[in-house]
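General statements about sequence and structure are easier to judge against a single worked case. When preparing material for the folding task, we compiled for one chain both its residues and its backbone structure tokens. The amino acid sequence and the backbone structure tokens for this protein are reproduced below:
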Amino acid sequence: MIEHDVRVHPSSDRLPRQEQLAWKIAELAADPVPVRADVTDMVINRIIDNAAVAVASVNRRPVVTARGQALARPDSRGAAVIGAATDVRVAPEWAAWANGVAVRELDYHDTFLAADYSHPGDNIPPLLAVAQHLGADGNQLTRAIATAYEVQVDLVTGICLHEHKIDHIAHLGPSVAAGLGTLLEATPEVIYQAVGQALHTTTTTRQSRKGEISSWKAYAPAFAGKVAIEAMDRALRGEGAPAPIYEGEDGFIAWLLSGPAAAYTVPLPGPGEAKAAILRTYTKEHSAEYQSQALIDLARRMREQIGDLSRIESVLIRTSHHTHYVIGTGANDPQKLDPTASRETLDHSIMYIFAVALQDGRWHHVDSYAPRRAARPDTVDLWHRITTVEDPAWTERYHAAEPEFGGRVEITLTDGTVVADELGVADAHPRGARPFARGNYLDKFGTLAAGVVSAAEQTRFTELVQRLPELTAAEVRQLTVTVDEVKLADAPEGLF
């Protein structure tokens, strides 16, 4: 890996294009390095993972709305929409939109946390949609996904957005554009312009993940994917982007991040070096914010230690800065303690999540968020007895070379006894007690597709995707999942 220093330059410097981060990303995307076998295997895992969470959300209102918008843009060449029949085709940017919302809705797919947050699986819907539209084969799609993961993980490693309340889709737009560049075998010049446009048009605030969290939480990554496709289309037609997009004196770093004196270090593979960042990412066993994964597992473990939960006086979670201030009491969001809060808000309340996991000994993507479940009096009582604090040791562990995203829980009982335990990484994490492997991804798909997708369709999809590198263009166009056991809900009426 080569570490690139990125800082603001006055316009008078006339920073050469070859020294700009967007150009370096473009060169990475244009590098025809082969994809390693272990990377290919993980790409397949993540396509399976995305399909699983997408079919589980297929009739949730935000997904129904996005699908309705996509189906209003038929395109005989186009791309498939998850849930619909395989012969239904829509414009690729709208397929990316609909499928991206379906993948993101349940907050149940893969994650990478470093200087910032990310869900790199969000790259797959737009890349798959364009591959289907253009007739790319499985090898081309695999290479594109490897590039996109590499770029997003490297940006997330080097540049913190949330510190400045910028949403993490600002790293996703450029990574999708880079992946599209690889898919299209575009020149560095074209990819450079698309990356710049994608960053410029996907910079939004984190209010989408604060306070009253709405369906835009699911829409935001899909928006970034759609915008990146449109950016690449313009770049292919010869249109340009603001530049230097990262380093300019009125650019991204100078005014939206740490300012004119700031300096960032972004690691990128050198020429001929494998794009293997996907192996640093991890998926979710539980449908909840990633920083709650280890704490859900810990709650299930501590439940057995406590026995009678009515004896709990209070619960203190010692955890990292990120967990305390984003999903803990440090966020100072009253909505995180509100039994009538939206699913999206409850998903970002570790107090709620830990209470339910402790009481139920499990976490379910539907049942655990049901309004009746959230309003249960004994749950509300326990929920409101839980507080979080930042523990510098856990913040250090969060930022370590081998990061840990858990915490230490101290449960005080009514007789004064303190039951304490801690867990650094989730059981499903690569360094966890039960690391996810291909069988786990297939099991997750089978569980979430049950009652929604027929057994024959499940088999067709899983057998197809596991041959990804050798798929023909015609087979890539069939790389979707049709819901044929339940009726797809109709979208509410809009403009189109």
Q: What stands out?
A: The longest strand covers residues 312-319. The chain is about 45% helix and 10% strand.
